[in-house]
Design a protein that fits this description.
The complex is a heterodimer. Chain A starts with a helix and ends in an 8-residue tail after the last strand. Chain A has one domain: Porin (Beta Barrel), CATH 2.40.160.40. Chain A is 3% helix and 57% strand. By secondary structure, chain B is an alpha+beta fold. Chain B has two domains: 39 residues; 153 residues, Alpha-Beta Plaits. Chain B is 35% helix and 33% strand. An eight-stranded mixed beta sheet of chain B has the order 2-3-1-4-7-8-6-5. In chain B, helix 1 runs antiparallel to helix 2. The longest helix of chain B has 18 residues. Chain B is globular and about 40 Å long. Classes of the chains: A mainly beta, B alpha+beta. Chains A and B meet through strand 5 of A and helix 3 of B.
Chain lengths: 267, 197
């Protein structure tokens, strides 16, 4: 079912600064992105609101390699907890650019540690599980439209103080499809114009051995200010799921700021 | 007579005075080098670069910030809509086109075209004409026989300075220009291929 929906979306028209996935393009060399994403998700069990905060730093080590480090802060038990952190490294191994077009491919790995209690079958290295994830991304930019897709394998481990439940599957294949469209401005005049991008991301998981799966859709509106700051507003909605998930639906707010030329080199 | 020719005369006069002194042997090569460098750079003052692989202003800004770190550029102007960057070289400093290319690539993109505003003084050019400025020899390709005078637009067409498609087009002319693929000719230190436009 997931694949069918992806094919339908392939026909529509984005810029590739996606919210929940990274394109095969990297952060520029020696540039840093400082990012904070706050989510508001309603827990299925008791209808309480969880609002995890994810601070993140992204750095371009070279034109082909970027590293991303983030932390996961939750309001579990009505207090602020640092529950975990992860490190992602992406290597762009293919890039072919023409005027206002490119196709790129990248491989990446994420290593995450977490201390949260595990109450769901869904494997989520972004804030819930300790584990490792290995992925492949392909991204196509066509003028004002961008399409990007990822496929990845992930394996979860025990969280620090909380063991991974034995009746849950630890391995999954995850896939995503993202598309975005630059809506405004119609014509660029300078760096100070506010950009507006509309995006849709689809995120799916197929668990190995038990065959359980889910698929989510995430519409996003994105504003870029002065060509260096970015604000995203999004809503994540479960389309279907055959596995237990504690908080599938919610609102996401992301703000990030790009710092270029971080380490000044003297010639 | 331009600035560099004035300077050449002054330096030769100074060298003439110094000839009587024993330090002359050390200073003369230095003076010659200095004139060489100044004269080379006086001939190229401006260039237009189109970056490939980007559309949005955040990507243009990333490219602009990378280009701003190049030490031999005096200033960089932008045309965000056409992902174009116009830059002015500092006078009297040595420069390196490969640094321009690598800065664009560091931003995550590639050079679509690099057009130099180069000053010529009644130079007759055609295919396979070699024009040397300082350490750099420019090999003209796909250029009709013409006389270049004053400031003319010339485009660098080596690998990495044009799109992949355009590079392949020139590569098909390998039998006509064997040095295009190798980028080397014996006894020439730095070789670039260019086209008058």
């Amino acid at each position: 079912m997931g694949n069918f929906i992806f094919l339908c979306f392939y026909q529509t028209k984005a810029q590739e600064l996606f919210l929940l996935t990274y394109p095969a393009s990297n952060v520029p060399k020696n540039a840093m992105v400082v990012r904070g994403m706050n989510s508001f998700f309603q827990r299925t069990a008791d209808k309480s609101i969880r609002y995890p905060l994810m601070p993140e730093f992204e750095y371009g080590l070279s034109k082909k390699i970027m590293v991303i480090a983030n932390g996961f802060i939750s309001n579990e038990g009505n207090k602020v907890n640092l529950e975990g952190a992860s490190l992602l490294t992406q290597y762009r191994f293919y890039s072919n650019g023409e005027a206002k077009k490119h196709f790129r491919m990248a491989v990446w790995s994420r290593f995450a540690v977490n201390n949260a209690e595990i109450h769901q079958e869904e494997i989520e290295l972004n804030g819930h599980n300790s584990g490792i994830r290995l992925g492949l991304t392909g991204t196509q930019l066509l003028y004002k439209t961008a399409l990007s897709s990822t496929i990845s394998y992930q394996k979860s481990f025990n969280n620090f103080a909380n063991e991974f439940p034995q009746n849950y599957t630890t391995r999954s294949i995850d896939y995503t499809f993202s598309l975005g469209q630059l809506v405004l401005p119609g014509t660029y005049k300078n760096f100070n114009q506010t950009n507006v991008n509309l995006m849709v991301e689809m995120l799916g998981q197929n668990q190995l051995s038990n065959g359980k799966s889910f698929l989510d859709i995430v519409p996003v509106i994105q504003f870029i200010f002065k060509s260096k700051a970015r604000l995203d507003l999004a809503y994540r909605r479960q389309l279907y799921s055959t596995m237990s998930r504690t908080q599938p639906n919610g609102i996401l707010i992301n703000f990030q700021y790009n710092i270029f030329d971080v380490i000044r080199k003297k010639y | 007579m331009d600035y560099s020719e004035h300077l050449m005369i002054i330096l030769i006069a100074v060298a003439g005075r110094l000839k009587k002194q024993k330090i002359m042997n050390k200073i003369i090569p230095l003076l010659i080098f200095l004139v060489f460098v100044l004269d080379t750079n006086a001939q190229i003052s401006k260039a237009k670069l189109v970056a490939n692989g980007l559309t949005c202003s955040m990507c243009s800004n990333a490219t602009y910030k990378q280009l701003k770190t190049i030490p031999f550029l005096d200033s960089v102007d932008t045309d965000v809509e056409h992902t174009k960057f116009i830059f002015y070289f500092k006078p009297n400093v040595d420069f390196d086109y490969k640094m321009i290319k690598s800065k664009v690539e560091d931003a995550g993109f590639s050079v679509g075209s690099l057009v130099l505003s180069m000053k010529f003084d009644n130079v007759s050019v055609e295919n396979d004409f070699h024009y040397t400025l300082g350490d750099i020899t420019y090999h003209f390709m796909e250029t009709k026989k013409q006389n270049l005078n004053k400031i003319c637009q010339v485009k660098l067409i080596d690998k990495g300075f044009v799109s992949g498609k355009e590079y392949k087009k020139y590569l098909n002319l390998e039998s006509k220009y064997p040095c295009y693929k190798t980028g080397k000719i014996e006894n020439i230190k730095v070789l670039y291929h260019m086209k008058a436009i």
